[in-house]
Amino acid sequence: MSKPFLRMSMVLALLAAAGVVGGLSGCATGKASLPTADALGAAGALPRGTDMDALQRGRAILVTECANCHRLFLPAEYSPEQWRGIVKRMANRASLGEDQAADLELYLAVSSRAGK
């Protein structure tokens, strides 16, 4: 093999590795922006008597159901009041039951307040 071919192969390999690392770091950043129920509790962002299981279910619905159809909107992008209307409108489209919609709304409202 010639030296120019080897150099070109190395450059392409480095570019591919940089693309993978950049892509993975972008994914990690998005997930870090979605607080877990435990993180919200540790930050003191939970109203008294908040159901931790409901928060966990709400976050899971956001990640699995909502992000299935469109980009993942972060809780801090909207106020709790705005989320209430959004969840009400979208729950039907996503075929969410009442309990699921309530869990999702709870997660978004609490996370929205914590992110402000």
What does this structure look like?
With 116 residues, the protein is an all-alpha fold. It folds into 2 domains: 1-31; 33-115, no CATH class. Helices cover 74% and strands 0% of the residues. The protein is built from 5 helices and no strands. The longest helix is centred in the N-terminal third of the chain and has 30 residues, at 3-32. It is globular. 18% of the residues are buried.
Largest sheet: none
Number of separate structural domains: 2
Q: List low-confidence stretches.
A: 18-32
- Number of helical elements: 5
Q: Looking at the chains present, what oligomeric state does this protein adopt?
A: single chain
> Could you tell me the strand content as a percent range?
under 5%
- H-E string: HHHHH
Structural class computed from helices and strand pairing: mainly alpha
Short key terms for the protein model shown above:
116 residues; 5 helices; 0% strand; globular
Could you give a short description of this structure?
The protein has 116 residues and is an all-alpha fold.
